[in-house]
């Protein structure tokens, strides 16, 4: 039920519009409103939508509608409150939530959540308070039995969670393994009841475990090949190595066994991809792989790369000048949010002279298709260029820098935390700009080459 009726809202708005001598605060206090901001929103909604803006409205919106609202806000540089009033969105905070969700997950994050059937309640949850047992009247044995039951449920839940990514969907073999591990501490009948596992199924799984593994020897060979090459081999190269030893084996079997053994190549982990679909407006490929520039601040390239340390991720967004390969500016963040790219661009633009208007090339990542990003470029009259979809060669200069950065710095060092990596990246980029020489720059570092050219 709404806190304020439609008639009350209408009366307050009319009072506000008819009496211009008082401000929102005074009128809000006179009518007992908790905040003058509420009155401002009512007035804005009434002015844009009339009486319909004060009626109760459904809060269900499609992903396409949410995206159209955000695009209108970005293109017209509106505030959250202005946008919500313009589209008659009563909960103003929803617009901010949509924007944050889109920046973090693209249009997929704007899809409404499906409402599933609620899980059945347990007997302890459905019991009413007045039916709760009186602990003073219960025997010591009953209380101990209840404590042991709770301990068993807790231990079982932890064991299942460690074996399965989704404890609710644990396999029969996983349940049987947990029961076997806990049967020395708790009665097997209680464990089987908790796991909803028939006794015959449990003993069948135990029999399977006692059987000899027909792939035992092959597993040992695969592990030996993988360890000999220090994790550099994937399943295809492991298959070739096993075949050279005289064992004809199918690559699909090797792939499956490596998955069971938890063996995965450490080389070329999955690359961060910033493309989130056809959102915003793409720019043409103005650079056309012409990676040479005859002066500083004529051609820039940018991209975002990902680092993974101790289960956490760090994203780096730099701008590189094609004249001397110097990193003009960079930003880092634990999430690939738009603010990281926007801040990086502002730093780069601050270094330009009024007459300098470089071409700025990137891929078709969602950050570079944002209206706010493109507005920053138009304000400084910079030409925007984008690679063709799925073509990393169109931005080869930036990819080359990332390759050098990771081979010379990231892969040669061990990092205990993301903060340690962040500090190391700042130090390396300074070294890359000021100290690391390049043969194509006549044996000078990027900064030395630019300084020498200015002095000439």
Automatic annotation (TrEMBL):
Q: Which Gene3D superfamilies match?
A: Ribonuclease H-like superfamily/Ribonuclease H (3.30.420.10), Winged helix-like DNA-binding domain superfamily/Winged helix DNA-binding domain (1.10.10.10)
Note the SUPFAM superfamilies from the entry. Homeodomain-like, Ribonuclease H-like, TrpR-like
| Transmembrane spans | none
Region of interest called Disordered, as start-end residue ranges on this chain: 109-139
Q: Where is the Integrase catalytic domain?
A: 280-454
What is the protein's given name? IS3 family transposase
Q: Which organism is it from?
A: Telluria mixta
Source organism lineage? Bacteria, Pseudomonadati, Pseudomonadota, Betaproteobacteria, Burkholderiales
